[in-house]
C-alpha cells in the first residue's frame, strides 16, 4: 500500500460527527515504519485533534522522532493542506525538504514540503540563546 492508501485506510475511522470532514494522515519515519492518525472531534469543539497530530503522537509513542514523508487525505474539492498548528507540529520532527503529499479521495494530488508549508518557522534553536 502506498502512503496515501494507508492514509485513506485510517481516514475512514475518523471521529468527525460535528464537521463531517474525515481526514487521514500517514507518516513514514526514518526507521521505515508508517504511523497513522485520523481526526478525533469532541463535543467541546476546541478539544478536537487533527489527523496529523494523531499520526505524530502514534509515531512518537512507537519510538520514532524523525519524519521522512507525510501523506494527508480528505474528501474535499482540492487537496487539503495541514492547518497552521499541524505545520508547526510536523516541522518539529521533519526537515524542510521532507515531502508532504496532499490528496483527495477523488484522486487529486499536490506534493509540497514541510519547509514550503511553514517558512520562517519557530524552532528549538531560538530557545538556546
Ligand atoms: N483537520 C485535520 O484533521 N487535518 C487537517 O489538515 C485539516 C483539518 C480536521 C480538524 C477537524 O476535525 C476537521 O478536519 C474540520 O476542520
Q: Could you characterize what this model shows?
A:
There is one protein chain. The chain is of the alpha+beta class. The chain has a single domain (3-127), classed as Cytidine Deaminase, domain 2. It contains four helices and five strands; from the N terminus they run αββαβαββα. Strands 2-1-3-4-5 form a five-stranded mixed β-sheet. The longest helix has 11 residues, at 51-61. Bound molecules: tetrahydrodeoxyuridine.
Topology:
Elements: H1 3-11, E1 23-29, E2 34-38, H2 51-61, E3 67-74, H3 84-93, E4 99-104, E5 109-113, H4 114-117
Parallel strand pairs: 3-4
Antiparallel strand pairs: 1-2, 1-3, 4-5
The structure holds tetrahydrodeoxyuridine.
Tetrahydrodeoxyuridine binds at residues 16, 19, 21, 23, 39, 41, 48, 50-52, 72, 80, 82-83, 86.
Beta-strand share of residues? 15-25%
The percentage helix is 25-40%
Name the CATH architecture: 3-Layer(aba) Sandwich
* Beta-strand segment tally: 5
Short key terms for the protein model shown above:
26% helix, 129 residues, globular, binds tetrahydrodeoxyuridine, single chain, Cytidine Deaminase, domain 2, alpha+beta, 4 helices
How would you briefly describe this protein structure?
The protein is an alpha+beta fold.
